[in-house]
Specification:
Distance between the termini: 53 Å
Strand order of the largest sheet: 1-2
Number of helices: 17
Order of helices and strands: HHHHHHHHHHEEHHHHHHH
Number of strands: 2
Largest sheet: 2 strands, antiparallel
Structural class: mainly alpha
Radius of gyration: 22 Å
Shape: globular
């Protein structure tokens, strides 16, 4: 009876979308409170570290580099990444243990076969919504090397949990009537976000098809899928697998890159040359190229400097706009709207930023995972270049038409 619902041509896809969007909604909304608590705890530790440096009479430059640079960025990444992953991965593992995920592959197999790839890519694409690095690791379930490479190279076209906060903020402020917290505004924002997610899945299929006809030509391998029986999930095993094997593994890689990168970002914002900080120089240098794709130098610089984790893009952007010396936090959407609008943002700027959020180089954690999974620097570089080139091309066309 369940398979008549989950695998029917009429109800299979709608039920799948409802389930996946429920998981996304629960992840996004459920992560807000624990994320705030974790952020408060980690920034409380920051204050204690400052007290310790003061007690030890450490030089101010050493305190600022290690506390406002390294620790602040690390705290930001951990507080934003950990709660969503701690919710998403157990939910996803529950669906896997229940026996539903092979049904997702069955429903989407036809679409991916049309793109000359494997239906199992549907599962890795869904895992990418939680974390693209985890989605890349999940590509191991695809036996054919050609289809596995296609799945790895296109996984970052779907937004991970680190990109959802920026997507939600920009959609709510500029593309949903800036209606605050009203019910109508929330529904409009949810509808636009749904369209963005569907667009990302369509982009994944389109780029997969192009790769299958160019760089990775070849015959599609046979996809034999045995649907397992439904079973009651083993909660304890689910928690252990999702937290230890996925959440902490991915978070550890992100933290290892974010800590030294925080020092680099702090140095750019505090070292001056010719009366301007290096960050300001960098933004000015990028500005002409950024204008061609509907952005500005600050936005493009934030995406580049946000390489360790997508969660850093908005804080870096705000730091540059407000000429701050460390990562800046905005307390409300109203304050964020005021800063962005005051720096020339329009609805078209927001559309360009949303599309570039979908189509740009994966974070460093995902790139390191791709290097490990493929064993090739070349394919790792391709995974960075392909989505970035697609995003620049699309934005250049839109800017020519509507700019």
């Amino acid at each position: 009876r369940l398979d008549r619902l989950f695998l029917s041509r009429r109800t299979g896809i709608p039920v799948m979308l409802l389930l996946l969007f429920f998981v996304f909604w629960l992840t996004i909304t459920g992560a807000n409170y624990p994320s705030a608590l974790l952020a408060n705890a980690l920034f409380w530790v920051q204050e204690r570290l400052s007290d310790l440096f003061c007690l030890l009479h450490a030089p101010k430059w050493l305190h600022d580099c290690l506390v406002l640079g390294v620790w602040r960025v690390l705290a930001w990444v951990v507080s934003v990444m950990l709660p969503p992953m701690a919710i998403f991965f157990p939910l996803f593992t529950l669906l896997e243990d229940f026996g539903y995920l092979p049904r997702v592959a069955f429903n989407l197999d036809h679409c991916f076969q049309k793109a000359h790839t494997c239906g199992k890519q549907a599962l890795t694409m869904c895992m990418g919504f939680g974390c693209n690095a985890a989605g890349v690791v999940g590509c191991r379930i695809i036996s054919g090397k050609r289809e596995r490479l296609i799945a790895i190279l296109t996984n970052s076209f779907v937004p991970c949990n680190g990109r959802f906060p920026m997507l939600i903020a920009l959609i709510s402020l500029f593309l949903a009537g800036n209606s605050g917290g009203s019910a109508a505004g929330s529904l409009t924002a949810a509808g636009v976000l749904a369209l963005v997610v569907v667009f990302s899945a369509a982009a994944t299929l389109a780029v997969s098809f192009i790769l299958s006809k160019t760089l990775l030509r070849g015959e599609s391998s046979a996809f034999t899928l045995e649907l397992p029986p439904y079973r009651v999930p083993r909660i304890g095993q689910v928690i252990v697998r999702s937290v230890l094997d996925r959440t902490l593994h991915v978070l550890g890689r992100a933290a290892a890159v974010a800590a030294p990168w925080g020092l680099a970002v702090y140095a750019l914002a505090n070292i001056s040359a010719g009366g301007e900080t290096l960050l300001s120089w960098f933004c000015s240098w990028l500005d002409p190229a950024a204008r061609l794709i509907g952005l500005d130098g600050v936005i493009l610089a934030a995406f580049i400097l946000g390489l360790p984790a997508n969660e850093l893009v908005i804080p870096i952007m705000l730091m540059a706009y407000t000429s701050g010396s460390c990562l800046t936090e905005i307390s409300s959407y109203a304050a964020l709207s005021e800063v962005l609008s005051g720096n020339g943002w329009t609805a078209m700027t927001a559309v360009s930023a949303v599309l570039f959020t979908l189509m740009h180089s994966p974070c460093s954690t995902t790139l390191l995972t791709i290097k490990k999974e493929t064993g090739s620097i070349g394919w790792t570089a391709a995974a960075a270049v392909i989505p970035t080139a697609a995003g620049i091309g699309l934005l250049a066309v839109l800017n020519c038409i509507f700019g």
